[in-house]
Every structure is written in structure tokens, then in C-alpha cells.
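so my prof wants the structure for this chain in the C-alpha cells format not the other one, which i didnt know existed until like an hour ago. anyway here's the sequence
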Amino acid sequence: MKIKKIRRIEDLIETVDEIGFLPFFCSRIYGFSLEDHVADSAWYRGRWHGKVVWDAWNWKGELLRDKSLIYGKFFEGKAGFISKEWFPDFCNYRRDGYDFDSRFEDGLANYKDKGIVEYLQQTGATLTKNIKDDLNYKKGGNKGFETVITRLQMQTYVVPVNYEYSVRKSGEEFGWGNCRYDIADNYWGKKLCCSAYKREPEESYERIMKHFKKLLPEADEIDIKKLIG
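here's what i got, hopefully its the right format
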């Protein structure tokens, strides 16, 4: 697998559309991440007046707003990108034939998972800080928000749809950005998310596995399986 140097958001979109998926940070497979191939000029360069100077970090909000790529914690609970071509197979495999309600009814999801899913179904896309406030994820209240929201992303039920920044009175943005989440089928549409349902989940897994092996012929199969999840 040969990935050209990623200098701009257009390079990232082109790369992921070509290869199908790519972790954001260095993964267990050497050379298979945005971090491994991004230009130094686009990687983290510190903070300036509270604003994080990190082009690659900011790209994810733009490409989500444009609906260019799917982004979320998809690889061992860590962030990465999936193309629209391959996301249906990830949904089919990761959901294992279940919509969320059926998963909960069969005892495969807990009440905290259900709470966040039902909340987003009612409110639509919502900022992290508002989800936490409304569902009492704060000191003395519920715990484990990051664990729950990561699990729901891994299962492809919930996805980030934007990153929004705090703004000073001067109009300058600052901080790391607050994630806005939504139900994947709402934001990306059922047509996309469910289009691989005609296949058995195991078939989607094999398609993903076969593609990974083609991309990474020298990678250990155990590492690929762990990355797929």
C-alpha cells in the first residue's frame, strides 16, 4: 500500500475514498494512519491565543459538514475515517443484524446506551456538553460517558457530525472543539447505512477483511482482526 503525503483536506478525502478507511492516529499496523502520512505543516503545531493550531484536527469538522467521509471512533475505540463506499459493510458487520432497539431487547445493550440513543432520536444532532448536562453525566451523576459514546460509535449507531468551537468576544475561536453527535442513520441516511443489509454480517466482515489484506499484505492477520473489531 502506497499513500502519498497528505497536505490538504482534499488529499485526505482522495486517499480514504481510494483505500476505504484510515485511522487518524498511529495504529497497531505500522504505516496505516493519517498521522503516518500527513505533512508536518498540517500536524499539531501548538496553540496560539488558545486556538489549537492543527490543520488535520480541524479537517474532520469540515469533511463531516460536507459529508465527504464518515469519521468516528471506529478502530479499537480510536478515531478514524471510512469512505461512503465501505461504511455500509461496517454498519452491517458491527450491528450484526440488529437495529438498536432489537439489540437492547435482546440484552446486548445497556440502559446508558439506550439513554443516549433515545435522547439523540428525540433531539437530533446535539453537542456533547448538552448531552452530558441533560443526561446527568457530571460529578455526582452518571459516569462513563466516553465509554458509552465510544461503544455506540464502534457499533455504528452514533456518529460525530460536526466540531464546534467556543468563541471569544473578539470573535476568535479557541479550545479543542465540542463534538456534535447524531444517530448515524439520521445524519447519513438509512439508504447508505443499511445498503449492505442484503448481505449476512459475516459476509461484510469477510469483505472488509479481504480488503484489509489486499491493502496491507505484510500485516499480521491478528492485528488486522483486532483493528476491524
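also thought this was worth mentioning. Strands lie at 21-23, 47-48, 51-52, 70-75, 78-82, 126-127, 158-167, 173-183.
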